[in-house]
Each structure stands twice: as C-alpha cells, then as structure tokens.
Amino acid sequence: MTPAPPLALTMGDPAGIGGEITLAAWARLRAAGPAFVVLDDPRRLAGLAAGLGWDVPIAEVGGPEEAAAVFADRLPVMTLRLPVPAVPGRPDPANAPAVLGAIERAVALAQSGRAGGVVTNPISKATLYRSGFAFPGHTEFLGALTGTSAPPVMLLASPMLRVVPVTIHVSLRRALDMLSTAEIVRTGLALAAGLREGFGIDAPRIAVAGLNPHAGEEGAMGDEEGVLVVPAIEALRARGVDAFGPLPPDTMFTARARAGYDAALCLYHDQALIPIKTLDMDGGVNVTLGLPIIRTSPDHGTAFGIAGQGVADPSSLVAALRLAAEMAARRTKEPAAP
Ligand SMILES: NC(=O)C1=CN([C@@H]2O[C@H](COP(=O)(O)OP(=O)(O)OC[C@H]3O[C@@H](n4cnc5c(N)ncnc54)[C@H](O)[C@@H]3O)[C@@H](O)[C@H]2O)C=CC1
Ligand SMILES: NCC(=O)COP(=O)(O)O
C-alpha cells in the first residue's frame, strides 16, 4: 500500500483561531503524524507563535512533497501573503483573496495527487460575503472548484454520532420550502455511499428524522412526514439503502437510539448540528461527501471572541486531520471501481 501524501491545510480566516489551532495541532501530531502542510503567511504564524510564547519553528516549503521530511521538526508552510496584517478578532474582507486562494491551492494540490486531502480551517462567512464571495460556505465552493455534478453533502462525524442535514446554509423558512422527497433521497444515497467509501461501513443503517413534533403525530402536527419523508424512505429502501423512520427528532439522539443507526439523516442544519456539537464539540469533524477529493474540517467556527489568546482547543482540528488521513489511506488501499 502506497502511503498517502501529506494533507493540505488551509489558513481559514486569519483573524480567527485557525492559526493558533494549527500551531497546536502540529505540536500534537509532529511525532506520529499525519503530516500536513499549511497554506498561510509564515510571518503571521511566526508572529502568533512568538506572541503566545510557543516554540513552533516554521519551514517554508515548495509543496507537500517536502512537508513529510521536515514535519517532525518544523511546521511546513506553503507561503501565501496576506494583503493586510491580521488582527485577532477583527476580520477584514481585504484578506479574502488569501483566504480563498488557500482553499483553491489546497484543492489543486489534492486534485493533482500531491496532497492526500484538504483540511480547512474555519472561514468567516459574513466577512467573505462582504468581499463578494458568492457561495454559502466551503461545501458549496468546493463543489464548484471540483466541478461536481450534484451539490456536495455535509456530514458531521464524531465517535458518538454522525449526522447529515438535507438543507444546509439557508434560513429555516427557506429550508422548509426547499425540502422535497427527491432531495432527501439524493442526500440519503450520497450519505450511504460516503459511509461505505469513506468509513468502511458496508451496509449503513440510516435513521431519517421527522420534521415536526412527534414526527407529525399521524398528521395532526404536520403532514410533511407522510407527504415527503415516508416516500423518500421507501425510495431509499427500494435502492437498497437500510433507511428507516421518520423518527421523532426529540428522542432520536439519545444514547439508546444512537446505538441503532450509523448516521442520522436530518432535514435542516440545526436539527443535525445541535445534537453533535452538544455531544462532542471537540471530537466532531465536518466531512464533505460527493467530492472527487477528501475534505474535512473542524466542526467549530472562527471563534473571534477568543482568537489570539492561545486558549482555543485544537482537538477538533486534530480529529479532522486524523480522519482525512484515514480516509486517504482507505482510498489508497481500495481504489474506487472504474
Ligand atoms: N467550517 C467553517 O468554516 C465554519 C465556519 N463558521 C463560521 O465561524 C463564525 C463564527 O461562528 P459561531 O457560530 O460563533 O461559532 P464558533 O464555533 O466560532 O463559536 C461558538 C462558541 O464556541 C467557542 N469555540 C469555538 N471553537 C472553539 C475551540 N476550538 N476552542 C474553544 N472554544 C471554541 C467560541 O469561543 C464560541 O463561544 C461564523 O462566521 C461562521 O460562519 C462556523 C462553523 C464552521
Ligand atoms: N455550520 C457548519 C458550517 O458552517 C460549515 O460550513 P462549510 O464552510 O464547511 O460549508
């Protein structure tokens, strides 16, 4: 089995906690890996480390190929200069070209096989929107960069729970309007394929959430279960997916209920993300399914309120790096069928 090349880690918003969790993740992983190269401004990373009193020597490298050799001793950085100096907690749309450039370069490295996968530090969506960024978040941007034919699917995974929202970054009102049987089926199929290919779960059990209290109470509290969700479950089952439900959303995340499925297919963003972040904010990882490359990310955001203080927990980033490396190793071992 050929070892997968180092991972490409993006800078995220340089005013957020991405820099310091990158430094801390390197310190945790330098001995045992997985190795990664970060696309960032080495001067700002060195300044951040110095300001925090952390001993993180930096190596400017030309590509992931050089990262593995230096990783045990120095943090490998592929240089991207920031247009304006980063101030912790104060995001500046002027730095958007570097933030987005890091994502574009990381994707190119993964597509060419030079990087084993892409791991992204958190971006500030509102700041990027102010600079003209036209995508809701990484998930949709990565779909466009890699030319996927269908919108990618967002999976949040932790050892305690895996969840997928059918609708992602839209208002709750719009999410309800967007829900359809076809979209639930499409997302469920992508989830089943992602669990097989990325996680080695051959026959995944997928619990499908209801939308309304008590999953509609036989239609008395809403008819979306009968009209949209039940037909979707039947269609998924007809396609060989072990999907079941709709389950009442308020009880489907108890420990006992979680033991009965490999992933929960949820109908909107917070129905999926509240349970996983409440259960395991530090161990949760965001995985994008349906891309030709591997992409993971910590489950949290930029945390501007604590940026630059050195108190941010790097555990979710470390988990994201480890999961990306595991998925890359699985791909190397089991190449996709032609
Ligand atoms: N993958 C990505 O790029 C993501 C980006 N975001 C973006 O992050 C920005 C802020 O979002 P929020 O909703 O405030 O969520 P957030 O995750 O940044 O912060 C929520 C709370 O958790 C704390 N927190 C987050 N990460 C932490 C860590 N590693 N260690 C210790 N405490 C931590 C924060 O201090 C805050 O109290 C938004 O612009 C959002 O779009 C949010 C989630 C994912
Ligand atoms: N709430 C999850 C989140 O914001 C992650 O979005 P993305 O940037 O990974 O698409």
UniProtKB/TrEMBL annotation:
Keywords assigned by UniProt, alphabetized: Cobalt, Cytoplasm, Magnesium, Metal-binding, NAD, NADP, Oxidoreductase, Pyridoxine biosynthesis, Zinc
EC number: 1.1.1.262
Molecular function as annotated in GO: 4-hydroxythreonine-4-phosphate dehydrogenase activity; cobalt ion binding; magnesium ion binding; NAD binding; zinc ion binding
Reaction catalysis annotation: 4-(phosphooxy)-L-threonine + NAD(+) = 3-amino-2-oxopropyl phosphate + CO2 + NADH
InterPro entries hit by this protein: PdxA, PdxA_fam
Any single GO CC term annotated in Swiss-Prot or TrEMBL for this entry: cytoplasm
CC cofactor: Zn(2+); Mg(2+); Co(2+)
Broad class of enzyme this protein falls into: oxidoreductase
Compartments in which it is found: Cytoplasm
Cofactor remark from the record: Binds 1 divalent metal cation per subunit. Can use ions such as Zn(2+), Mg(2+) or Co(2+).
Pathway the protein acts in: Cofactor biosynthesis; pyridoxine 5'-phosphate biosynthesis; pyridoxine 5'-phosphate from D-erythrose 4-phosphate: step 4/5
The UniProt record lists the keyword NADP: yes
Positions bound to substrate: 138-139, 277, 286, 295
Cited HAMAP family: PdxA (MF_00536)
Miscellaneous comment in the UniProt entry for this protein: The active site is located at the dimer interface.
Record family assignment: Belongs to the PdxA family.
PANTHER family per the UniProt record, alphabetical: 4-HYDROXYTHREONINE-4-PHOSPHATE DEHYDROGENASE (PTHR30004), D-THREONATE 4-PHOSPHATE DEHYDROGENASE (PTHR30004:SF6)
Subunit record text: Homodimer.
Function summary: Catalyzes the NAD(P)-dependent oxidation of 4-(phosphooxy)-L-threonine (HTP) into 2-amino-3-oxo-4-(phosphooxy)butyric acid which spontaneously decarboxylates to form 3-amino-2-oxopropyl phosphate (AHAP).
Protein name: 4-hydroxythreonine-4-phosphate dehydrogenase
Organism of derivation: Muricoccus nepalensis
